[in-house]
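Writing this down once: the sequence line spells out the residues, with the fold written below as integer tokens. I am pasting one below:
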Amino acid sequence: MRIIRNYFYTAGYNLLILLTPLLTVPYISRVLGPTGVGINATTNSIITYFLLFGTVGITIYGNHEIAFIRDNRKQRSQTFWEIEILQLLTISCAYLAFLVFLFFERRIVKSSATFCRRKLHLDFSIPRPCVDGYLNL
């Protein structure tokens, strides 16, 4: 029974992940316009590269290690926190690298600031690449 319930939760979650963009992208595209969508796509692609650098496969490694010692609760807890600290360190390094990238890449910050000045009338609940001229991090 537990496996079936887990299967339905996973299937529902995957279905939600597939349907959410189908419902939100047309609205966001209409509100942001072509320039806003382009800036948003560029910003998201750059941030995704730094996020990939920050995670460097730690999730897969963590699943493997936790599954390997699943019977020993104390060792499993210790391994979990070691992996969490490792992930915090790698994401912090990626975040610092991203800030250095933003410092040297003025074109992205400038285009995002221009975009924000034109779209200040938007509601804050709408996802956009920047707030008050700075990229959302």
Q: What stands out?
A: Strands lie at 130-131, 134-135.
